[in-house]
Amino acid sequence: QSVLTQPPSVSAAPGQKVTISCSGSSSNIGNNYVSWYQQLPGTAPKLLIYDNNKRPSGIPDRFSGSKSGTSATLGITGLQTGDEADYYCGSWDSSLNDVIFGGGTKLTVL
Amino acid sequence: QVQLQESGPGLVKPSETLSLTCTVSGGSISSYYWSWIRQPAGKGLEWIGRIYASGTTNYKPSLNSRVTMSVDTSKNQFSLKLTSVTAADTAVYYCAREGVGTIHLDYWGQGTLVTVSS
Asked: What is the residue-averaged pLDDT of chain B?
């Protein structure tokens, strides 16, 4: 069971918006930065969001991140079939002295 | 463009040592932290640990007694050793670079499957 809690799956139609939540505690999300990763089928994870809401170069602004208290959210607008993937949140846990990830959320674009 | 490539045996016997190397190209290994992450089939990501170019390490507490990481700056490589492996260590192993300032992984290798089986 992951320290960070994500919904196992979300779905939405092409062109729509979806949000993926990541719930933690004061020892991780509450006092540390959150990053988000996209893992397309059969490939390595790719950094989408870091420092809660920053996008690396080359990541479209359809992807956004936010944090409030001990929870974080990834938003994806203008959904495309190519966005179908597993999405993971990650953070440092100051109590565990460990980098922790959520269990992952599978996005289906119907 | 920074690229990472994992290499090492794809099959390791139970109780033996898993050894992997990550070769970094397109940039220097200096001034960054470098991590190992693994993913069992159909499951989520698990951070194993990280090493700085100077050799400073941080390991996942639950794996600390079995993990050793090292770095060879002359070859732009860093390595992972995991001792006393069991079937539970079967996974795709990724190496990755940690971005500047905070803990986020900005460049990843393609991953290599390591199976623990006799």
From this structure: 96
